[in-house]
Amino acid sequence: MPKPIRVVGSLNMDLVVQVPHQPISGETVLGSDYATYPGGKGANQAVAAARAGAEVQMWGAVGSDAFGAILKENLEQNGIDTRQLTELPGPSGIALITVDPSGQNRIVVSPGANGRYTPEGLPLFTPAALLLLQLEIPMPTVLAVAEQAFAQGIPILLNPAPIQPLPGSLLPQIRYLVLNETEATSLTQSPIETPEQAQTVAQRLQKQGIPTVILTLGGAGLVWVDGEERGYLPAHSVKVVDTTAAGDGFCGALAACLAAGGSLKEALRFANAAAALAVTRAGAQPSLAYRAEIEAFGAGQRDPSV
Ligand code: RIB
Fold first, then answer.
1. 25-39, 55-69, 289-303: lowest mean pLDDT where?
2. Is cis: bond before 162, omega within 30 of 0?
């Protein structure tokens, strides 16, 4: 029996408005009609991994409101095992998202049930091929899950978003750290303006005991360090519609490829193509790509170096 990827994290209903520009403090901006899309970094990564071909389990919490049932059902429609998803009294997580004409977003999350998903609510830990974690659930829950996975030898992929200080005990348990330049700057206090600077920051993070660090740079591509190896991968050139969940699409596809036995370089190319497809479409989960289209897109592109 192949072992599943386990995602322990958030589920949100995203309320999305297109705006002509992002409002500054005190400004009111008239936008489009709002749209609702299933989102949340945890659920997005679970859906991305499932569409990329992995068997996926999702652990987390939805609220007792109407959004909770929709979020759960949406995961099931994507073939994800939701038997360990908990329903907690009160509202589900939501995200208020504005997207400007260049596809860039601003996101405010109200955690709802995600914020009430405490370590006491965790199921018994069983084997998994890979554990995917983000930081939209309480840190004590993240730490409890990471500790159990580490003790069982399950590789952990941490996407530290939204960024916050990371306890020193967590980093040495992480096998793959995937973060963007804003998150990396926040963790290291080092500005990142070029891939060369990003490479230096990735190496600094690696020295904290993480074998593989992948630092994504949006349209400028990504840099990675893995043991003694390092490299750069340019982003694919695509028409950007909405960058929401592109990072989640990357993490989910990367995890799916690694769990299927792919090499890191194969997984990076696959995830890079998945992220490129995600930015060409609106919304969080509706934008996430399926394995066949990721492979077809990747095959049609010039093979970038890693
Ligand atoms: O990463 C994108 C996600 O961030 C959105 O779906 C939103 O719910 C927030 O969690």
1. 289-303
2. yes
